[in-house]
Amino acid sequence: MRWLKFTASGKTSWGIIEGDQVIAVEGDPFSEWRRTSRTHPLDEVKIELPLIPRTFYCVGLNYLKHLKEAADKAGTVPAVPDRPEIGYRAQNALIAHDEDVVIPAIATEKIHYEGELVVVIGKKVKHLTEANAMACVFGYTIGNDVSERSWQKADRSLWRSKNADTFKPMGPWIETDADLARMETIVRVNGRETNRFRTNDMIFGVVPFLVELTKYFTLWPGDVIWMGTDGASPDIKHDDVVEIEISGVGTLRNRFVREGR
Amino acid sequence: MRWLKFTASGKTSWGIIEGDQVIAVEGDPFSEWRRTSRTHPLDEVKIELPLIPRTFYCVGLNYLKHLKEAADKAGTVPAVPDRPEIGYRAQNALIAHDEDVVIPAIATEKIHYEGELVVVIGKKVKHLTEANAMACVFGYTIGNDVSERSWQKADRSLWRSKNADTFKPMGPWIETDADLARMETIVRVNGRETNRFRTNDMIFGVVPFLVELTKYFTLWPGDVIWMGTDGASPDIKHDDVVEIEISGVGTLRNRFVREGR
């Protein structure tokens, strides 16, 4: 099932995508809901951010090629993590599919994309096991972990390099039936492919992360875990359009514009 | 004005504290509200977490003594930050005044408190200036940035050391009329004073942080900024009660219990 948050005729609600139509739903997928008789053509609705997570989790280094490229740039030896560790991103930075990433006027040219699988949590859970972990996953969406690399290098934390307003596009919808093992992530800049990797080739996969996180944290419905990215990005310039496709999930597309241009 | 989120007679709402009474309010302080005729004695209501912030900001190193003690323990030279930088904490970890901090069974004995002033944002703002920054501040509350120091040392990030469930007590209420310049932070363990510092003796104060953050971030009503702590903490043990008082704001009190004890 494909869940879309959308606006049509001035009304924002959840809906289910069937073919090229959206069936509006009353309620929300995390609690009570029912189909209505209201439908809209998918290409005539405004796609909204699926949700604002209560806690916004994000894995830093979770793919070998990305790790190696980051180490090469820093002139260091890649240190492969020996256990799953999580980071955070900031809710202020979230935008929807087709909304613009605004590169701050004071940013350098080192603006990079990171195409990431996003795990959407559906249940309140703690102390998960390998056997039951996947039952808390509601579905998957797509994230672009936009980064300003000069700030990332200069700062003690990832605050502005990863969390400036509009730096976290997420969407376009939540797919509940996608198969992790068959997913491929493909990134295109202005229609030209720049990255391709098997989405599930993670150093630590979704299950180990869910087990490790819930030793310490309660996960809540609507929490998201961004699973990291592989490979590297060219510098993204004003007016470039970045598309991140994950097979079986969808394609997240956002234009980048420089503030004041 | 002193704003309290509370539960009485099975109903949770906002209220205003006047003397030893709470006057229940319809609505919330960030939008429309009006007093009701319902009042309760303050000592008969359950004090709730004032809010769950949209984005949960927290300053790491913002007082000289804390910086020096952290550096001494690490065997390094204290590096005083040359500009304001922000970090994040996780919403899952928040608990209210008088709720228990649960030390995970797998944690070491190195459990420390950090008494912090919490700035509560009241308006949606960006690009603040020194002259207008304070106008976005709704009021102040108190936070205890509980930390497991062995994890903090062992991990690449602050994920479990600072964000395990119950590690972020916040409250008891929001005070809108407190005067930063006159505040003193006093910490007591089981009634015995263990720390005292001038709350506003920050390396970077509230105004520089608001100006710097809003170069990059939109702040939203209900966002919180924890401003860091001074000094050090003894190891907190099962059944210890930690109180953090900030003059003009109030006292946040929480018992620490070890999981499974």
From TrEMBL, chains A, B:
GO molecular function: hydrolase activity
Domain Rv2993c-like N-terminal residue range list: 1-48
Matches recorded under Pfam families: FAA_hydrolase (PF01557), Rv2993c-like_N (PF10370)
Taxonomy, superkingdom: Bacteria
Domain Fumarylacetoacetase-like C-terminal, residue spans: 56-256
Keywords: Hydrolase, Metal-binding
UniProt record similarity statement: Belongs to the FAH family.
Name the record gives this protein: Fumarylacetoacetate hydrolase family protein
